[in-house]
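Good morning,

Both structures are done.
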Amino acid sequence: MNKTPINSEEFIDILKNYDIGAFISCKYNPAAVENTVYLLKTSKGKYTFKIFESSSDFDIEYEVKFMEYLRKKGVPTQQVISDKKGKLFSKFKKKNYVILKYVEGSHPNKLTPGLIKEYAENISNFHKISLNYKVSKDKFWRKNKKLDHEFGIEKSTPEELFGFPLLKEYKEVIKEMEKEVDRSKLRTCVIHGDIGTSNTLVKNKKFAAFIDWTDCHKDYLVQDLAIFVPINKFFFKHFFSNYGIKLNFEEKKAFYYFKKIRKLSDIGFIENFKRKNPDLEKRFNQVIKDIINSYNDSKKLSLKDYLSIINKNS
Protein backbone atom coordinates (compact mmCIF):
# COMPACT_ATOMS: atom_id res chain seq x y z
CA MET A 1 0.00 0.00 0.00
CA ASN A 2 1.42 3.39 -1.04
CA LYS A 3 1.57 5.72 1.97
CA THR A 4 1.17 9.48 1.76
CA PRO A 5 4.16 11.41 3.16
CA ILE A 6 3.54 14.72 4.90
CA ASN A 7 6.12 17.10 6.37
CA SER A 8 6.07 19.69 9.14
CA GLU A 9 5.47 22.64 6.80
CA GLU A 10 2.44 20.88 5.30
CA PHE A 11 1.04 20.17 8.77
CA ILE A 12 1.49 23.83 9.72
CA ASP A 13 -0.44 24.84 6.60
CA ILE A 14 -3.24 22.35 7.30
CA LEU A 15 -3.61 23.48 10.93
CA LYS A 16 -4.40 27.03 9.77
CA ASN A 17 -7.86 25.65 8.97
CA TYR A 18 -8.44 24.31 12.50
CA ASP A 19 -8.73 25.67 16.03
CA ILE A 20 -6.57 23.01 17.67
CA GLY A 21 -3.42 25.00 18.29
CA ALA A 22 -0.03 25.41 16.67
CA PHE A 23 2.02 22.52 15.28
CA ILE A 24 4.62 20.99 17.61
CA SER A 25 5.48 17.58 16.16
CA CYS A 26 4.23 14.57 14.21
CA LYS A 27 5.09 10.88 14.30
CA TYR A 28 4.25 8.30 11.63
CA ASN A 29 2.40 5.18 12.82
CA PRO A 30 3.77 2.13 10.93
CA ALA A 31 1.16 -0.16 12.49
CA ALA A 32 -1.58 1.27 10.26
CA VAL A 33 -1.85 -1.08 7.28
CA GLU A 34 -4.53 0.29 4.95
CA ASN A 35 -4.29 4.02 5.62
CA THR A 36 -1.63 6.58 6.56
CA VAL A 37 -1.72 7.61 10.21
CA TYR A 38 0.29 10.14 12.22
CA LEU A 39 0.30 11.13 15.88
CA LEU A 40 0.02 14.91 15.76
CA LYS A 41 1.00 17.15 18.68
CA THR A 42 -0.12 20.76 18.87
CA SER A 43 -0.08 23.48 21.51
CA LYS A 44 -3.58 22.34 22.54
CA GLY A 45 -3.02 18.60 22.77
CA LYS A 46 -2.57 15.34 20.86
CA TYR A 47 -4.51 14.22 17.79
CA THR A 48 -4.66 11.36 15.31
CA PHE A 49 -4.18 12.50 11.71
CA LYS A 50 -5.55 9.87 9.34
CA ILE A 51 -5.23 9.91 5.53
CA PHE A 52 -7.59 7.54 3.72
CA GLU A 53 -5.67 5.89 0.90
CA SER A 54 -8.64 4.53 -1.02
CA SER A 55 -11.97 5.27 0.72
CA SER A 56 -14.55 7.34 -1.17
CA ASP A 57 -16.12 10.59 0.04
CA PHE A 58 -19.36 8.70 0.69
CA ASP A 59 -17.64 6.06 2.82
CA ILE A 60 -15.75 8.61 4.92
CA GLU A 61 -18.80 10.80 5.48
CA TYR A 62 -20.72 7.68 6.53
CA GLU A 63 -17.97 6.75 8.99
CA VAL A 64 -17.39 10.14 10.63
CA LYS A 65 -21.10 10.93 10.99
CA PHE A 66 -21.67 7.57 12.67
CA MET A 67 -18.70 8.13 14.98
CA GLU A 68 -20.03 11.53 16.04
CA TYR A 69 -23.53 10.13 16.55
CA LEU A 70 -22.17 7.43 18.86
CA ARG A 71 -19.86 9.81 20.73
CA LYS A 72 -22.70 12.23 21.44
CA LYS A 73 -24.75 9.29 22.72
CA GLY A 74 -21.99 8.42 25.18
CA VAL A 75 -20.13 5.66 23.33
CA PRO A 76 -16.39 6.01 24.06
CA THR A 77 -14.73 6.79 20.75
CA GLN A 78 -12.52 9.48 19.26
CA GLN A 79 -14.00 12.90 18.58
CA VAL A 80 -13.88 13.93 14.93
CA ILE A 81 -12.44 17.46 14.79
CA SER A 82 -14.21 19.80 12.39
CA ASP A 83 -12.37 22.62 10.65
CA LYS A 84 -13.25 26.29 10.92
CA LYS A 85 -15.96 25.82 8.28
CA GLY A 86 -17.53 22.90 10.14
CA LYS A 87 -16.25 20.19 7.76
CA LEU A 88 -15.47 16.81 9.36
CA PHE A 89 -12.99 15.74 6.66
CA SER A 90 -10.93 17.48 3.99
CA LYS A 91 -8.47 16.82 1.16
CA PHE A 92 -4.67 16.60 1.15
CA LYS A 93 -2.90 15.71 -2.11
CA LYS A 94 -6.29 14.66 -3.51
CA LYS A 95 -6.85 12.22 -0.65
CA ASN A 96 -9.31 12.56 2.20
CA TYR A 97 -8.12 13.00 5.76
CA VAL A 98 -9.64 13.41 9.23
CA ILE A 99 -8.25 14.75 12.47
CA LEU A 100 -9.35 12.85 15.57
CA LYS A 101 -8.95 13.74 19.23
CA TYR A 102 -6.30 11.42 20.63
CA VAL A 103 -7.45 8.96 23.30
CA GLU A 104 -4.95 7.78 25.89
CA GLY A 105 -4.75 4.03 26.31
CA SER A 106 -3.18 0.85 25.01
CA HIS A 107 -4.19 -2.39 23.32
CA PRO A 108 -4.64 -5.10 25.97
CA ASN A 109 -2.37 -8.12 25.77
CA LYS A 110 -4.73 -10.25 27.83
CA LEU A 111 -8.45 -10.05 28.53
CA THR A 112 -9.11 -10.76 32.19
CA PRO A 113 -12.63 -11.47 33.51
CA GLY A 114 -12.83 -7.83 34.56
CA LEU A 115 -11.86 -6.58 31.10
CA ILE A 116 -14.20 -9.02 29.37
CA LYS A 117 -17.00 -7.54 31.49
CA GLU A 118 -15.91 -4.03 30.43
CA TYR A 119 -15.92 -5.02 26.76
CA ALA A 120 -19.31 -6.73 27.02
CA GLU A 121 -20.95 -3.71 28.66
CA ASN A 122 -19.48 -1.24 26.17
CA ILE A 123 -20.26 -3.34 23.09
CA SER A 124 -23.79 -3.87 24.39
CA ASN A 125 -24.29 -0.14 24.94
CA PHE A 126 -22.96 0.63 21.45
CA HIS A 127 -25.24 -2.00 19.87
CA LYS A 128 -28.35 -0.75 21.71
CA ILE A 129 -27.68 2.76 20.40
CA SER A 130 -26.88 1.53 16.89
CA LEU A 131 -30.12 -0.47 16.69
CA ASN A 132 -31.91 2.89 16.68
CA TYR A 133 -29.59 4.55 14.15
CA LYS A 134 -31.21 5.09 10.77
CA VAL A 135 -29.33 5.28 7.47
CA SER A 136 -30.93 5.97 4.10
CA LYS A 137 -28.01 4.52 2.18
CA ASP A 138 -25.38 2.13 3.49
CA LYS A 139 -21.85 2.26 2.16
CA PHE A 140 -21.68 -1.49 1.45
CA TRP A 141 -25.27 -2.04 0.33
CA ARG A 142 -26.29 1.11 -1.55
CA LYS A 143 -26.17 -0.76 -4.88
CA ASN A 144 -28.14 -3.73 -3.58
CA LYS A 145 -30.82 -3.37 -0.91
CA LYS A 146 -30.66 -7.08 -0.07
CA LEU A 147 -28.36 -7.55 2.90
CA ASP A 148 -26.57 -10.78 2.03
CA HIS A 149 -22.93 -9.95 2.73
CA GLU A 150 -22.31 -12.92 5.03
CA PHE A 151 -24.23 -15.25 2.73
CA GLY A 152 -22.24 -14.50 -0.42
CA ILE A 153 -18.77 -15.28 -1.77
CA GLU A 154 -16.43 -12.59 -3.09
CA LYS A 155 -15.55 -13.09 -6.75
CA SER A 156 -11.89 -12.58 -5.91
CA THR A 157 -11.80 -15.56 -3.51
CA PRO A 158 -8.87 -17.86 -4.47
CA GLU A 159 -9.77 -21.50 -5.10
CA GLU A 160 -6.88 -22.83 -3.02
CA LEU A 161 -4.08 -21.52 -0.79
CA PHE A 162 -1.23 -23.59 0.66
CA GLY A 163 -3.18 -26.77 -0.12
CA PHE A 164 -6.29 -25.45 1.68
CA PRO A 165 -9.48 -25.63 -0.46
CA LEU A 166 -10.69 -22.11 0.38
CA LEU A 167 -13.45 -21.79 -2.21
CA LYS A 168 -14.80 -25.29 -1.48
CA GLU A 169 -14.92 -24.58 2.28
CA TYR A 170 -16.68 -21.29 1.64
CA LYS A 171 -19.38 -22.94 -0.43
CA GLU A 172 -19.92 -25.74 2.08
CA VAL A 173 -20.20 -23.44 5.11
CA ILE A 174 -22.60 -21.07 3.37
CA LYS A 175 -24.73 -23.96 2.12
CA GLU A 176 -24.99 -25.40 5.63
CA MET A 177 -25.71 -21.98 7.11
CA GLU A 178 -28.50 -21.32 4.62
CA LYS A 179 -30.05 -24.60 5.72
CA GLU A 180 -29.69 -24.03 9.48
CA VAL A 181 -30.21 -20.27 9.94
CA ASP A 182 -33.37 -18.26 9.33
CA ARG A 183 -31.78 -14.93 8.42
CA SER A 184 -35.13 -13.11 8.76
CA LYS A 185 -34.76 -13.54 12.54
CA LEU A 186 -31.33 -11.86 12.64
CA ARG A 187 -31.37 -8.26 13.86
CA THR A 188 -29.47 -5.66 11.85
CA CYS A 189 -27.72 -2.41 12.74
CA VAL A 190 -24.59 -0.51 11.82
CA ILE A 191 -21.78 -2.57 13.29
CA HIS A 192 -18.14 -1.70 13.94
CA GLY A 193 -17.04 -4.47 11.59
CA ASP A 194 -13.64 -5.15 13.13
CA ILE A 195 -13.89 -5.14 16.93
CA GLY A 196 -10.77 -6.58 18.51
CA THR A 197 -8.00 -5.68 20.89
CA SER A 198 -6.17 -3.87 18.06
CA ASN A 199 -9.16 -1.57 17.47
CA THR A 200 -9.95 -0.81 21.11
CA LEU A 201 -8.08 0.88 23.92
CA VAL A 202 -7.96 0.27 27.66
CA LYS A 203 -6.57 2.44 30.45
CA ASN A 204 -6.11 1.55 34.10
CA LYS A 205 -7.81 -1.81 33.49
CA LYS A 206 -10.91 -0.05 32.14
CA PHE A 207 -12.31 0.11 28.62
CA ALA A 208 -11.26 3.46 27.13
CA ALA A 209 -12.42 3.62 23.50
CA PHE A 210 -13.42 2.00 20.23
CA ILE A 211 -11.12 3.15 17.43
CA ASP A 212 -10.84 2.69 13.65
CA TRP A 213 -14.39 2.63 12.29
CA THR A 214 -13.29 2.16 8.67
CA ASP A 215 -15.25 -1.11 8.39
CA CYS A 216 -18.48 0.13 9.99
CA HIS A 217 -21.52 -0.80 7.91
CA LYS A 218 -25.02 -2.17 8.19
CA ASP A 219 -24.93 -5.88 8.93
CA TYR A 220 -26.27 -8.51 11.28
CA LEU A 221 -25.69 -7.47 14.90
CA VAL A 222 -24.32 -10.89 15.78
CA GLN A 223 -21.55 -10.43 13.20
CA ASP A 224 -19.78 -7.98 15.53
CA LEU A 225 -19.88 -10.61 18.28
CA ALA A 226 -18.62 -13.34 15.97
CA ILE A 227 -15.63 -11.15 15.12
CA PHE A 228 -14.71 -10.46 18.73
CA VAL A 229 -15.90 -13.29 20.97
CA PRO A 230 -13.96 -16.60 20.83
CA ILE A 231 -15.82 -19.86 21.30
CA ASN A 232 -14.88 -21.03 24.77
CA LYS A 233 -16.75 -21.49 28.04
CA PHE A 234 -14.63 -19.02 30.01
CA PHE A 235 -15.14 -16.14 27.59
CA PHE A 236 -18.82 -16.95 26.99
CA LYS A 237 -19.52 -16.93 30.74
CA HIS A 238 -17.91 -13.55 31.41
CA PHE A 239 -19.04 -11.89 28.20
CA PHE A 240 -22.67 -12.92 27.76
CA SER A 241 -23.52 -12.47 31.45
CA ASN A 242 -22.65 -8.78 30.95
CA TYR A 243 -23.79 -8.25 27.36
CA GLY A 244 -27.17 -6.62 27.81
CA ILE A 245 -28.78 -7.97 24.64
CA LYS A 246 -30.16 -11.51 24.68
CA LEU A 247 -29.43 -13.42 21.48
CA ASN A 248 -32.27 -15.39 19.96
CA PHE A 249 -31.78 -18.98 18.81
CA GLU A 250 -31.18 -18.04 15.16
CA GLU A 251 -28.55 -15.49 16.19
CA LYS A 252 -26.78 -18.09 18.30
CA LYS A 253 -26.60 -20.41 15.30
CA ALA A 254 -25.51 -17.58 13.02
CA PHE A 255 -22.66 -16.78 15.45
CA TYR A 256 -21.26 -20.28 14.90
CA TYR A 257 -21.24 -19.92 11.12
CA PHE A 258 -20.19 -16.27 11.02
CA LYS A 259 -17.04 -17.14 12.97
CA LYS A 260 -16.10 -19.67 10.32
CA ILE A 261 -16.93 -17.30 7.48
CA ARG A 262 -14.89 -14.54 9.10
CA LYS A 263 -11.82 -16.76 9.12
CA LEU A 264 -12.35 -17.71 5.47
CA SER A 265 -12.95 -14.11 4.41
CA ASP A 266 -9.83 -13.01 6.32
CA ILE A 267 -7.78 -15.55 4.38
CA GLY A 268 -9.08 -14.20 1.06
CA PHE A 269 -8.70 -10.56 2.13
CA ILE A 270 -5.12 -10.98 3.31
CA GLU A 271 -4.17 -12.90 0.15
CA ASN A 272 -5.54 -10.09 -2.05
CA PHE A 273 -3.84 -7.45 0.09
CA LYS A 274 -0.58 -9.38 -0.07
CA ARG A 275 -0.68 -9.44 -3.87
CA LYS A 276 -0.89 -5.65 -3.89
CA ASN A 277 1.96 -5.40 -1.38
CA PRO A 278 4.61 -8.00 -2.36
CA ASP A 279 7.06 -6.60 0.20
CA LEU A 280 4.75 -8.00 2.92
CA GLU A 281 4.46 -11.47 1.38
CA LYS A 282 6.53 -13.35 3.97
CA ARG A 283 4.71 -11.74 6.89
CA PHE A 284 1.23 -12.35 5.51
CA ASN A 285 1.93 -15.90 4.31
CA GLN A 286 2.45 -16.88 7.94
CA VAL A 287 -0.71 -15.04 8.99
CA ILE A 288 -2.71 -16.94 6.36
CA LYS A 289 -1.28 -20.27 7.52
CA ASP A 290 -2.17 -19.46 11.14
CA ILE A 291 -5.77 -18.65 10.19
CA ILE A 292 -6.04 -21.87 8.17
CA ASN A 293 -4.89 -23.85 11.22
CA SER A 294 -7.39 -21.99 13.41
CA TYR A 295 -10.18 -22.71 10.93
CA ASN A 296 -9.35 -26.41 10.78
CA ASP A 297 -9.46 -26.52 14.59
CA SER A 298 -12.88 -24.84 14.57
CA LYS A 299 -14.27 -27.59 12.36
CA LYS A 300 -13.79 -30.07 15.20
CA LEU A 301 -16.66 -28.43 17.11
CA SER A 302 -20.11 -29.37 15.79
CA LEU A 303 -23.06 -27.00 15.80
CA LYS A 304 -24.76 -29.19 18.40
CA ASP A 305 -21.77 -29.10 20.76
CA TYR A 306 -21.34 -25.35 20.26
CA LEU A 307 -25.01 -24.71 21.08
CA SER A 308 -24.61 -26.74 24.25
CA ILE A 309 -21.70 -24.49 25.29
CA ILE A 310 -23.35 -21.16 24.49
CA ASN A 311 -26.72 -22.13 26.01
CA LYS A 312 -25.05 -23.05 29.29
CA ASN A 313 -22.91 -19.92 29.38
CA SER A 314 -25.15 -17.13 28.10
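Second structure follows.
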Amino acid sequence: MKKVLLVAVVLAFAVSASGKKKEIDVLREQVAALTAKVDSLEKDALAKSLKSAQELTEALRSYADMKAMYDELKETCEQISAKPQFEVKGELCSGLMLIMQNYKYGYADANGKIVIEPVYESATDFNNGIAYVKEGDKWGIINVTGQAIIACEYEDIQNFSDEIYQVKKDGLWGFVDSTGKIVQECVYSEIGSKLTKDLCRVYENGLLGFVDLNGKIVQECVYTDVKGGYSDGIYQVRKDGLWGLIDSTGKMIQKCVYSEIEHVRRQVKSAPVCLNGKWGLLDDRGNVKVKPQYKDKWDALRVVGYN
Protein backbone atom coordinates (compact mmCIF):
# COMPACT_ATOMS: atom_id res chain seq x y z
CA MET A 1 0.00 0.00 0.00
CA LYS A 2 2.80 2.43 0.92
CA LYS A 3 4.59 1.65 -2.31
CA VAL A 4 1.46 2.34 -4.38
CA LEU A 5 0.93 5.65 -2.57
CA LEU A 6 4.56 6.65 -3.08
CA VAL A 7 4.46 5.83 -6.78
CA ALA A 8 1.19 7.80 -7.14
CA VAL A 9 2.78 10.83 -5.50
CA VAL A 10 5.88 10.51 -7.65
CA LEU A 11 3.86 10.27 -10.85
CA ALA A 12 1.63 13.18 -9.83
CA PHE A 13 4.70 15.29 -9.21
CA ALA A 14 6.15 14.24 -12.54
CA VAL A 15 2.99 15.27 -14.39
CA SER A 16 2.90 18.65 -12.67
CA ALA A 17 6.53 19.13 -13.68
CA SER A 18 5.80 18.71 -17.36
CA GLY A 19 5.52 22.42 -17.91
CA LYS A 20 8.13 23.68 -15.49
CA LYS A 21 11.85 23.29 -15.92
CA LYS A 22 12.58 24.20 -12.29
CA GLU A 23 10.42 21.38 -10.97
CA ILE A 24 12.04 18.93 -13.39
CA ASP A 25 15.40 19.94 -11.92
CA VAL A 26 14.05 19.25 -8.43
CA LEU A 27 12.85 15.85 -9.62
CA ARG A 28 16.32 15.08 -10.91
CA GLU A 29 17.78 15.94 -7.50
CA GLN A 30 15.36 13.56 -5.82
CA VAL A 31 16.40 10.79 -8.21
CA ALA A 32 20.03 11.45 -7.40
CA ALA A 33 19.30 11.30 -3.67
CA LEU A 34 17.43 8.01 -4.06
CA THR A 35 20.31 6.59 -6.08
CA ALA A 36 22.75 7.46 -3.31
CA LYS A 37 20.51 5.83 -0.72
CA VAL A 38 20.21 2.60 -2.73
CA ASP A 39 23.95 2.47 -3.32
CA SER A 40 24.57 2.87 0.44
CA LEU A 41 22.89 -0.43 1.17
CA GLU A 42 26.04 -2.43 1.30
CA LYS A 43 24.95 -6.02 1.43
CA ASP A 44 27.83 -7.18 3.67
CA ALA A 45 27.25 -4.44 6.25
CA LEU A 46 23.52 -5.06 6.17
CA ALA A 47 23.96 -8.80 6.61
CA LYS A 48 26.04 -8.32 9.79
CA SER A 49 23.11 -6.55 11.49
CA LEU A 50 20.57 -9.24 10.58
CA LYS A 51 19.77 -12.04 12.99
CA SER A 52 18.59 -14.57 10.48
CA ALA A 53 18.56 -15.51 6.81
CA GLN A 54 14.88 -14.61 6.71
CA GLU A 55 15.63 -11.03 7.74
CA LEU A 56 18.35 -10.91 5.11
CA THR A 57 15.84 -12.03 2.48
CA GLU A 58 13.38 -9.31 3.57
CA ALA A 59 16.10 -6.66 3.40
CA LEU A 60 17.13 -7.70 -0.08
CA ARG A 61 13.48 -7.64 -1.18
CA SER A 62 13.15 -4.07 0.15
CA TYR A 63 16.30 -3.15 -1.70
CA ALA A 64 14.84 -4.57 -4.91
CA ASP A 65 11.57 -2.65 -4.44
CA MET A 66 13.44 0.60 -3.81
CA LYS A 67 15.62 0.02 -6.88
CA ALA A 68 12.50 -0.64 -8.99
CA MET A 69 10.91 2.63 -7.80
CA TYR A 70 14.14 4.45 -8.59
CA ASP A 71 14.20 3.03 -12.12
CA GLU A 72 10.55 4.02 -12.62
CA LEU A 73 11.18 7.51 -11.33
CA LYS A 74 14.26 7.89 -13.50
CA GLU A 75 12.36 6.75 -16.60
CA THR A 76 9.54 9.23 -15.87
CA CYS A 77 12.04 12.04 -15.46
CA GLU A 78 13.74 11.15 -18.74
CA GLN A 79 10.40 11.06 -20.54
CA ILE A 80 9.53 14.52 -19.19
CA SER A 81 12.89 15.90 -20.24
CA ALA A 82 12.54 14.39 -23.71
CA LYS A 83 9.03 15.79 -24.21
CA PRO A 84 9.01 19.13 -26.07
CA GLN A 85 8.22 21.96 -23.63
CA PHE A 86 6.47 25.20 -24.40
CA GLU A 87 8.04 28.63 -24.34
CA VAL A 88 6.35 31.40 -22.38
CA LYS A 89 5.75 34.35 -24.71
CA GLY A 90 3.70 36.75 -22.62
CA GLU A 91 2.62 37.93 -19.20
CA LEU A 92 0.07 36.25 -16.92
CA CYS A 93 -3.17 38.11 -17.76
CA SER A 94 -6.71 37.08 -16.84
CA GLY A 95 -5.16 33.97 -15.27
CA LEU A 96 -3.50 32.79 -18.50
CA MET A 97 -0.14 33.31 -20.16
CA LEU A 98 0.67 33.17 -23.85
CA ILE A 99 2.86 30.18 -24.79
CA MET A 100 4.42 28.77 -27.95
CA GLN A 101 4.94 25.08 -28.67
CA ASN A 102 6.08 23.71 -32.02
CA TYR A 103 5.72 27.23 -33.47
CA LYS A 104 2.04 27.42 -32.51
CA TYR A 105 0.50 29.68 -29.88
CA GLY A 106 -1.80 28.76 -27.01
CA TYR A 107 -2.30 29.54 -23.33
CA ALA A 108 -1.32 27.97 -19.99
CA ASP A 109 -2.31 28.78 -16.43
CA ALA A 110 0.00 29.87 -13.60
CA ASN A 111 0.79 26.20 -12.80
CA GLY A 112 2.03 25.54 -16.32
CA LYS A 113 -1.05 23.52 -17.28
CA ILE A 114 -2.06 24.08 -20.90
CA VAL A 115 -5.62 25.42 -20.90
CA ILE A 116 -5.98 26.44 -24.55
CA GLU A 117 -4.04 24.19 -26.89
CA PRO A 118 -1.29 25.75 -29.05
CA VAL A 119 -3.07 25.78 -32.42
CA TYR A 120 -2.81 29.42 -33.47
CA GLU A 121 -0.42 31.02 -35.95
CA SER A 122 -0.25 34.14 -33.81
CA ALA A 123 -1.94 35.46 -30.67
CA THR A 124 -1.89 38.25 -28.10
CA ASP A 125 -1.94 38.35 -24.33
CA PHE A 126 -5.39 38.31 -22.73
CA ASN A 127 -6.77 41.70 -21.80
CA ASN A 128 -10.06 42.09 -19.93
CA GLY A 129 -10.82 38.45 -20.59
CA ILE A 130 -10.27 38.40 -24.36
CA ALA A 131 -7.36 37.73 -26.71
CA TYR A 132 -6.82 38.15 -30.44
CA VAL A 133 -5.85 34.91 -32.19
CA LYS A 134 -4.93 34.01 -35.76
CA GLU A 135 -5.92 30.77 -37.50
CA GLY A 136 -4.23 30.44 -40.87
CA ASP A 137 -4.28 33.99 -42.19
CA LYS A 138 -7.48 35.11 -40.43
CA TRP A 139 -7.96 36.80 -37.06
CA GLY A 140 -10.63 36.35 -34.42
CA ILE A 141 -11.19 36.87 -30.69
CA ILE A 142 -11.51 34.22 -27.94
CA ASN A 143 -12.37 34.29 -24.24
CA VAL A 144 -10.46 32.61 -21.39
CA THR A 145 -12.18 29.27 -22.02
CA GLY A 146 -10.97 29.27 -25.62
CA GLN A 147 -14.45 29.93 -26.98
CA ALA A 148 -14.55 32.10 -30.11
CA ILE A 149 -16.56 35.26 -29.57
CA ILE A 150 -15.54 36.58 -32.99
CA ALA A 151 -14.73 33.83 -35.46
CA CYS A 152 -11.33 33.76 -37.17
CA GLU A 153 -12.55 35.05 -40.52
CA TYR A 154 -11.09 38.56 -40.74
CA GLU A 155 -7.85 39.87 -42.21
CA ASP A 156 -7.53 42.31 -39.33
CA ILE A 157 -9.37 43.22 -36.12
CA GLN A 158 -8.91 46.36 -34.06
CA ASN A 159 -10.76 47.74 -31.07
CA PHE A 160 -12.90 50.70 -32.13
CA SER A 161 -14.75 51.62 -28.94
CA ASP A 162 -16.31 49.90 -25.94
CA GLU A 163 -17.79 46.60 -27.18
CA ILE A 164 -17.27 47.53 -30.86
CA TYR A 165 -14.51 46.25 -33.17
CA GLN A 166 -13.50 47.31 -36.64
CA VAL A 167 -12.87 44.29 -38.88
CA LYS A 168 -11.35 43.89 -42.32
CA LYS A 169 -12.64 41.40 -44.88
CA ASP A 170 -11.76 41.19 -48.57
CA GLY A 171 -9.75 44.38 -48.18
CA LEU A 172 -12.66 46.44 -46.79
CA TRP A 173 -13.58 47.51 -43.26
CA GLY A 174 -16.77 47.19 -41.23
CA PHE A 175 -17.90 46.87 -37.62
CA VAL A 176 -18.96 44.02 -35.33
CA ASP A 177 -20.01 44.03 -31.70
CA SER A 178 -18.49 41.99 -28.86
CA THR A 179 -20.67 38.98 -29.73
CA GLY A 180 -19.50 38.94 -33.34
CA LYS A 181 -22.77 40.38 -34.65
CA ILE A 182 -22.28 42.58 -37.71
CA VAL A 183 -23.05 46.25 -37.04
CA GLN A 184 -21.93 47.54 -40.45
CA GLU A 185 -20.92 45.40 -43.41
CA CYS A 186 -17.33 45.59 -44.62
CA VAL A 187 -17.71 48.29 -47.27
CA TYR A 188 -15.24 50.99 -46.19
CA SER A 189 -11.83 51.37 -47.79
CA GLU A 190 -10.59 53.11 -44.65
CA ILE A 191 -11.69 53.92 -41.13
CA GLY A 192 -10.07 57.23 -40.36
CA SER A 193 -9.45 59.28 -37.26
CA LYS A 194 -12.12 60.73 -35.02
CA LEU A 195 -13.55 64.07 -36.05
CA THR A 196 -15.12 64.60 -32.62
CA LYS A 197 -15.48 62.51 -29.49
CA ASP A 198 -18.70 61.13 -31.01
CA LEU A 199 -17.86 60.92 -34.73
CA CYS A 200 -15.30 58.99 -36.74
CA ARG A 201 -14.37 59.39 -40.40
CA VAL A 202 -15.04 56.51 -42.81
CA TYR A 203 -14.24 56.33 -46.53
CA GLU A 204 -16.08 54.55 -49.32
CA ASN A 205 -15.32 54.86 -53.03
CA GLY A 206 -13.12 57.87 -52.37
CA LEU A 207 -15.82 59.75 -50.45
CA LEU A 208 -16.04 60.63 -46.78
CA GLY A 209 -18.78 59.95 -44.26
CA PHE A 210 -19.21 59.55 -40.51
CA VAL A 211 -20.13 56.82 -38.04
CA ASP A 212 -20.81 57.09 -34.33
CA LEU A 213 -18.92 55.16 -31.64
CA ASN A 214 -21.38 52.27 -31.99
CA GLY A 215 -20.24 51.89 -35.60
CA LYS A 216 -23.59 53.07 -36.92
CA ILE A 217 -23.90 55.43 -39.89
CA VAL A 218 -24.47 59.08 -39.02
CA GLN A 219 -23.74 60.43 -42.51
CA GLU A 220 -23.34 58.41 -45.70
CA CYS A 221 -20.07 58.82 -47.56
CA VAL A 222 -20.89 61.80 -49.78
CA TYR A 223 -18.22 64.38 -48.86
CA THR A 224 -14.82 64.95 -50.42
CA ASP A 225 -13.34 66.88 -47.50
CA VAL A 226 -13.93 67.95 -43.93
CA LYS A 227 -12.05 70.42 -41.77
CA GLY A 228 -12.29 72.15 -38.45
CA GLY A 229 -11.41 75.72 -37.56
CA TYR A 230 -14.76 77.34 -38.26
CA SER A 231 -15.72 77.61 -34.58
CA ASP A 232 -16.03 75.31 -31.59
CA GLY A 233 -18.13 72.28 -32.46
CA ILE A 234 -18.77 73.36 -36.05
CA TYR A 235 -17.06 71.73 -39.05
CA GLN A 236 -16.81 72.53 -42.73
CA VAL A 237 -17.67 69.80 -45.24
CA ARG A 238 -17.33 69.81 -49.01
CA LYS A 239 -19.58 68.09 -51.52
CA ASP A 240 -19.46 68.47 -55.30
CA GLY A 241 -16.92 71.27 -54.90
CA LEU A 242 -19.10 73.35 -52.55
CA TRP A 243 -18.91 73.86 -48.80
CA GLY A 244 -21.42 73.53 -45.97
CA LEU A 245 -21.43 73.15 -42.18
CA ILE A 246 -22.20 70.31 -39.76
CA ASP A 247 -22.20 70.18 -35.97
CA SER A 248 -20.34 67.73 -33.72
CA THR A 249 -23.11 65.12 -34.06
CA GLY A 250 -23.01 65.23 -37.87
CA LYS A 251 -26.21 67.24 -38.19
CA MET A 252 -26.28 69.52 -41.23
CA ILE A 253 -26.33 73.24 -40.30
CA GLN A 254 -25.71 74.75 -43.73
CA LYS A 255 -26.09 72.81 -46.96
CA CYS A 256 -23.08 72.55 -49.27
CA VAL A 257 -23.88 75.54 -51.48
CA TYR A 258 -21.00 77.96 -50.75
CA SER A 259 -17.87 78.23 -52.88
CA GLU A 260 -16.03 79.51 -49.80
CA ILE A 261 -16.58 79.45 -46.06
CA GLU A 262 -13.94 81.16 -43.95
CA HIS A 263 -13.30 80.87 -40.21
CA VAL A 264 -15.21 82.93 -37.66
CA ARG A 265 -13.78 86.34 -36.74
CA ARG A 266 -14.19 86.17 -32.98
CA GLN A 267 -14.33 89.95 -32.59
CA VAL A 268 -17.66 90.05 -34.41
CA LYS A 269 -18.63 86.36 -34.20
CA SER A 270 -19.04 86.25 -37.97
CA ALA A 271 -17.57 84.25 -40.85
CA PRO A 272 -17.45 85.40 -44.50
CA VAL A 273 -19.15 83.08 -47.02
CA CYS A 274 -19.38 83.29 -50.80
CA LEU A 275 -22.47 82.20 -52.73
CA ASN A 276 -22.68 82.64 -56.50
CA GLY A 277 -19.89 85.23 -56.39
CA LYS A 278 -21.53 87.31 -53.64
CA TRP A 279 -20.29 87.62 -50.08
CA GLY A 280 -22.27 87.51 -46.87
CA LEU A 281 -21.81 86.39 -43.27
CA LEU A 282 -22.73 83.44 -41.05
CA ASP A 283 -22.65 83.70 -37.28
CA ASP A 284 -20.46 81.52 -35.06
CA ARG A 285 -23.19 78.83 -34.90
CA GLY A 286 -23.57 78.70 -38.67
CA ASN A 287 -26.75 80.73 -39.05
CA VAL A 288 -27.10 83.37 -41.79
CA LYS A 289 -26.23 86.79 -40.37
CA VAL A 290 -25.81 88.86 -43.54
CA LYS A 291 -27.22 87.52 -46.81
CA PRO A 292 -24.65 87.15 -49.61
CA GLN A 293 -24.92 90.42 -51.58
CA TYR A 294 -21.50 92.06 -51.52
CA LYS A 295 -18.74 91.87 -54.11
CA ASP A 296 -16.03 91.78 -51.44
CA LYS A 297 -15.90 89.95 -48.11
CA TRP A 298 -14.55 93.08 -46.44
CA ASP A 299 -17.65 94.99 -47.38
CA ALA A 300 -19.70 92.28 -45.69
CA LEU A 301 -17.50 92.38 -42.57
CA ARG A 302 -17.77 96.16 -42.32
CA VAL A 303 -21.51 95.77 -41.94
CA VAL A 304 -20.91 94.22 -38.50
CA GLY A 305 -18.15 96.66 -37.61
CA TYR A 306 -15.12 94.56 -38.43
CA ASN A 307 -12.14 96.57 -39.67
